[in-house]
Here is the input.
Amino acid sequence: MENIKIIIKIIITVFIIIVVAGMYKFNYLANKKGYDVDGNNITQSEKISYLEKRSVDLEKDGIRIIDSEDEFGDRIKETLYLGTSDKNPLKDVSLLARRLWYSEFIGMDKGGIMEKYESFRDSDFENTGELKEQFDFDILLNNLLKRVGLQPHNGEHIESLINDLKYDNITSDTDEVEMMTIRIPNLEWSDDVGDFVVKYKEYSVKKTPKILDAVYKKLFELNSYNGKYEGLIFNSVSIDKNKTAKIILSGSWFPGGDMSQLFFRKNIDEAAFQFDTVDMVTVYVDGKLFDWCIDDESDGEGGCNESAQYWIDKK
Here is the structure.
């Protein structure tokens, strides 16, 4: 008899919990952000609906979205091209390399991508949907590879491709590109002078009204390791009415050698000082005026204990 009472109590308790949960779902969650009129979470259902719609649309173009597994055993939606590799170079790109590509652009829309990476064309975004899922970015990659005639296979190739996109170095044979010549400074030792001197080398780049911007992009491209020059990435440069160049960088200062500060600072300064429109250079890293005291190893003898040594250099 006691066992029957216990069972009845358990059943009643479970029933009450179910009723309360239902009331919470229908009365509290209904119509709130992320939930439908019945209190169901719509985020996942919307995602499924998007996937289903895209699957139908893409199948018509010979593209199939299938369940797959990447190199780490994670379940993913793989973009499978049914055509030949010469028409669809993505077929030869590893899943790990595709994931690397996706991580570079995740969360960005078409406008943001084209603003940051000028090598993209409108045609590259054909059939890329809302750029929500990895398969959307797979198609973006495939479109780009077809246009420029590239067939990368692994992550190293993709990293190189992304780096070229950053520096606007990608063109196809059909692109009509007007070029211009810029000069890039390089600090080097001169036996004749007995000191370091700045020498300039000319390079041909795609013509742009942002000449100083092109100079810095090329300077960083020539001196970068893994996309960074002494740990820093070039973002932008502007010149104000007082002839001051404001250079915006991001990252963390990571000198490659004992004389890195000398070479890096001189090359950055002289890239701007070659122009009559610049009399002063200021450099900002992650929104803050760069302080060279970060590189001070003098145990307080170099003056950094008394004041900051901001990167503000005059011609």
